[in-house]
Amino acid sequence: MPRRLIPEADAGGVFHLVSRVVDRRLIFEELECRFFLKLTRAYSEFGGIKVITWCIMGNHFHLLVRVPPGSRKAAMALGDGEVLRRISLIKSSTEFLRIQSEYDECETASQRARLLDSYRQRMGSIANLMKGVKQRFSRWFNKRHDRCGTLWEDRYHSVTIQGSQSDHGGLGYLPEIVAAYIDLNPVRAGLVSDAEEYRWSGYGTACQGGRQAIAGLRDLYGYGSSHSDPITEHRQRLKEEWEAFRRRSGSQAPHASPLPLLSRTQILGTEEFVTGLAGPTPAGRAKMTTGLGAMAARHEQDLASTKGRFVFLGRSCGSKTFGSSTSPTQEK
Question: Looking at the domain assignment, is residue 88 inside a domain?
């Protein structure tokens, strides 16, 4: 598998992260979803990474996260007390007591720094976020179900998304439509008729009053946006993208998937943004990166031969209900 193209470690950015269960087995039931979210919250807070939205389906999950610029440098400057607090989020009580005891036994500042710097260096990294969450979940799941072996299809897929600071401080148009794509997963799969009905997504959780989910949407749209309520802002975006999706994909809309397109994409943004991260794109790397123009052109070719593909770039007001209720299925 080729290495993913991501910005330099301390540059920060917005990332869409996806991982699938091996053989696409349906493993995520209520208990699994709850434990997965618990781990995601713990490891994201440990790393200083902001979770914008998420969606857990039966056999895969999506995360949209933001790594603030300078996160690695900020982590190295954290006080010992804060580092220990963050360690307590990702360790069992027994493990944390051992680390605390080792810290208390250190006689010099340099000894304490050596002990805690190994944890500071793990912060601000999406690779460490995904590694921590997936490994811990795998161990828990395998023990609970008396199984062994790998649980995940591969490491994970990541897309670096071009963000921008608008006048109201939001992340910009592209993160908004990727967030809409993530929260519309259960609607496209026919599991619910309205995205707010799905419990295991960021938007569904926000609609139920989840503070962290609302904070994620606030980060997405900004504090001074035209709607005082970020849920209202996001619902409008969902309506626009769902209507654009239905216009482009016809009768197969509820079950269509953009995943074939996303799986070929590692950077989503303007050609200038893509070139800035990947450099001049040689023929050998053409399939690894895409700008909006190339992405749209390639997708239009796909539409000519295949119905039911999602289109990111359309914008139109939609109806109140996002989809029609059908028999439950998981998006492939």
Answer: yes
